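User: Sequence in, structure out. Go.
Assistant: Echoing your sequence, followed by the structure tokens.
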Amino acid sequence: MAMEALTVMFKNGCNNGVFKGFQMSNEGPLISHLLFADDALLVGEWSVTNVQSLSRLLRVLKLVFGLNINLSKTTLFGVGVNFQNVKAMADIFHCKAGEVPFLYLGIKAVLECLPSYYFSLYQAPVKILEILEAKRRRFLWRGSEEKKKTCWVAWKRITSAKEDGGLGLCPLKDSNLAFLSKWWWRFKVEEDSLWKKVIMSIHHTPRSWPIISNNKRLNGTWDKIVKIEKSLTTYQVSLTDSIKGRVGNRSKVRFWLDIWLTEDRLKNQFPTLLSLEAKKSCVVADRCILTDGNYSIKWNWKSQPMYGVAVNELIEILDLLYYFRFKGGEDKWVWGGEALDSFSVATMKKLLYRVDTPCPNSILDWNSWVPMKVNAIVWRAIQNSLPTCDNLIKRKILFGPDICCNCLAAGESVDHIFVSCYVACVVWQRIGRWCNIHTSQIKDVQGLLVAVNQVPEVEHKRKVTYSIVMTAIWCLWETRNKFIFENKPVKIDKMLGDIKPLLPSWELPWIHIHQYERFSINKGYENHDRHIPRFGLGEVWQGWSSGYMKNEHNVIGPFVDHGIVVVRYRKDKYGNDICIHQELVWGNGMDDGME
């Protein structure tokens, strides 16, 4: 509230001539103060009278709100003024004298955000990006250790999109360009923001009409932001063509200079008419006039288009305007790069780093129901990039025998551990009977995942199966590592038992039951008030061989000796669970070793 009062006080002081702020050129804004989280920057004309007026305004603030200014933490700076004059003025204000350039104290409070801050404001040099990328590569495979370790996947593949078979780690160059691109979007959207008014007062020139104003004689931060469009041409992305206007009340979209009527600017389509236009920066409302519910065209020519190309262009543009239908509401900017209403850095990153990515041999359907570490192990298994014996021997890291530690009967490869090993065969046989998938003809990890995706079930059932299979792959790899590094014997029953508690501990979003009813052919329904506690996928719930699971409205299906119940629920406004769907997904009554 006190800061709002400070704003009103300085605005009125500037309007009444009590305090003189800094007036920007080219009819730019008058700047008197900038407020931050815990600091205030006061800007004004350098004069004794102005400093005295500032002191009086702050004293009024103290008397009204009791907010005392800590002068021991206040510093006075003079731009273009020698330090002796600054010191003399600081003595009048009873504060410290400072020199330019200076360090802003508040930057320490946002130290963690500095990388994003620099990336969103400055275009990083190529050499700096190479150093940072090298540090990321080392950290990915080594962690915090300095010793050399093996890189198992090419960096190009890691920085590819997940949809293209990569890990989805965005390159720093693409992140930098995506952050800087947002300034183009903000320049169009934030019409009345102070920063845009400042940029316009410095960079706007009436002699050109770019989508973003830029004075090419001023080589600074804003000039670098404007010039990133040249860097984006290698990605086949045009910021100029991606920001389009959706016309409403016709007050913001420029008639000739913005994209709104067609997929290109009218100044490019009709250059002869543009040369005849008297006001080239006019908005749509200046040319399309609404009168009594009807639109009419009002031109403002320096000379009338009467011959040749000009007449042909006039006929064509009138034809386009005739079939255009104006909508209500305010004018709105849309991001045309991905046909979205609004720009986002995440969308821009995806657009950039999916260009020129390697054509993948295999693609993993990333599963949000299991942790990232499980997805990563499966992703590496598909690409044969796990440290198995055969891979270690190929890289001359291991010189011992190539033998599978689980079965001790064959060489250890990725496909052997997860598919053809005796231990893996038993696991997939039992899970296959449980989840109704055929695993007998599968030869590699990719084929296993393809078999799951071909299960003729509804989407949520298929995702349940996918979660089970990915968890089993994780458990197979973990069992192998525990045998090698901790000398723990391989026990198939224990491994299968480990799958069950893992899934509920990862908090899948649909596992809950409140109450049930037992159905008997002879006795009808027997209601039970007993609640079954939360349980997870893979946990077998013993039911009745002749019973049914039933909700309030319909019988779900036969609830046999073993099975998986999927129950979807949501929270009401009081935080209570409301069951919206429950279903017996699988159950065959066979003793498959999953108890």
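User: And one key feature?
Assistant: Residues 459-486 form the longest helix (28 residues).
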